[in-house]
């Protein structure tokens, strides 16, 4: 909880404080009050549609409970926000489907600069610390420097990296990585992929090819395809999520740089509009600054 509270400082300052202020000046729950709640939500990038939905449910619930007390109303807001998230399933969905008795392959997709490499490094470190044998595959052979960057993270996290050559065939890297993962009884293979190829069709073909190589070697893999999004880009992250969802079978999201934005509400908007679970959130640049997403901790963190 502490890390959430700290990582969400900016969002809390703009959104949480505004709500807290609203509560401090609280006299009565009237239409103005609901509208101000709605505005605070929209300002935090919860999204128009999602904000309206939360405010609407709040209106109904306040009426139903005949709530006049501000702490009750505040709890209803928190509950509505958590519920909105969990309506799509339980928090279980937020967890990675790790194969306990074999290899789990996690494919990372997303455009350049969103924090893909950093997130892979952080996650590799966590899994290694929890006693898993981890291997990384540097299959982003497209972006200059991507292979080296992943190698640096591999060293930092204390895990091996299978690397090809810049401009080489990513599928060949993935093939090698799968062979090695099986030969060395690796528990978790994290695969970095290129973010932007010449065009969408190209990207789709490339990801398909990588998936086919993985499946040839292990039919039920990859168990997860995680789309990495930069929370500071707000609604732009939403556009990327839509595009990638149409391009490949995304199973979940990693939302980075929540510490650098006042627009952390994007988590709720993406969940409500795209029905994709957020699996991890990035709350800083350090190796320990990646947390499994927990909707309750997240929402409570917004209120500080
Ligand atoms: P990639 O191109 O998607 O692989 O992006 P990188 O992993 O290279 O990350 C781009 C920049 O974002 C780097 O400077 C990272 O340190 C930074 N970054 C990644 N995740 C986070 C995060 O959760 N919080 C903050 N503040 N910075 C992050």
UniProtKB/TrEMBL annotation:
It catalyses: GTP + H2O = GDP + phosphate + H(+). GTP binds at residues 110-117, 192-196, 256-259. It is a peripheral membrane protein. GO terms for cellular component: cytoplasm; plasma membrane. It is found in: Cell membrane; Cytoplasm. GO terms for molecular function: GTP binding; GTPase activity; signal recognition particle binding. One of its GO terms (biological process) is SRP-dependent cotranslational protein targeting to membrane. Its EC number is 3.6.5.4. Involved in targeting and insertion of nascent membrane proteins into the cytoplasmic membrane. Acts as a receptor for the complex formed by the signal recognition particle (SRP) and the ribosome-nascent chain (RNC). This is Signal recognition particle receptor FtsY. The gene is ftsY. The chain holds residues 57 to 360 of 366 of the full protein.
